[in-house]
Amino acid sequence: LAAVARVPARVWCHAMAGPAVFIAIGAVTIAVTFGGGDLVRWGPVGVDEGSASRALLVVSRALAATSATVLLAATTPMVDLLAGLRRAWVPEVAVDVAAVTYRMIFALLDAASAIRAAQAGRLGYASGRAARRSVGQLCAAVLVAAWDKARRLEDGLAGRGGVAAVPLVPARAVSTPFVLAAGALVVGLAGLSLRAGLS
In terms of DSSP bridges, do strands 45-47 and 40-42 run parallel, antiparallel, or are they unpaired? Predict the structure, then answer.
């Protein structure tokens, strides 16, 4: 990530922090078993060698998959991803849903940021009681804004006959050596994984 794709390590760490928490919680629930405790034991629960190895396997696979997703998100614009999905014959409805969801996320984040700034300017977070009231009003306002934007977007798409909201990018040349190398890498990793699983 850092050397080849030139993704800053700080950006990668920030992107991985949230998923890593969920992965760690899942690993704990796998490692801790009732009645076990070959390695560590706390009363009726403990960690044995089998559960620890399963938890380590889940953590390694989850971190690898999440890292690949972060690499894709950090190096490929969303418009290119949507265009690639269309070229891969993904159903148009699924691509449209992904495009609308992507646009709505940033629209709602902007609306929430503007509303919160206005509330802070009126001392809406000066005390705990005021902050709780302001957060409730913020959630309600964002919900109403999301409903209104979704309705207007649906009307606009219906007026265009369901044409996608995100324009297609021009077709780009495909690097055949890169595709072959990537395919060989995936096949090689799959072969190593199968061989390790059978041994």
Answer: antiparallel
Chain CA centroid to CA 185, Å: 24
Q: Is the dihedral of CA 28, 31, 33, 39 positive or negative?
A: negative
- DSSP secondary structure string, 110-128? HHHHHHHHHHHHTTTTSSH
Stretch 166-186: mean pLDDT: 72
What are 10-59's pLDDT values in tens digits?
Answer: 888 888 898 999 999 999 888 888 776 677 777 777 888 888 889 999 99
Interatomic CA distance for residues 4 and 1, integer angstroms: 6
Separation in Å, CA 147 to CA 32, 107, 153:
43, 12, 10
- Rounding to the nearest 10 degrees, give the CA dihedral for residues 81, 87, 91, 92: 70
At 25 the pLDDT is 93
- 165 — pLDDT class (breaks 50, 70, 90): very low
Based on DSSP, count helices (H) and strands (E) in the chain, helices before strands.
6, 3
Q: CA quadruple 146, 152, 157, 161: dihedral positive or negative?
A: positive
Q: What is the DSSP letter of 167?
A: P
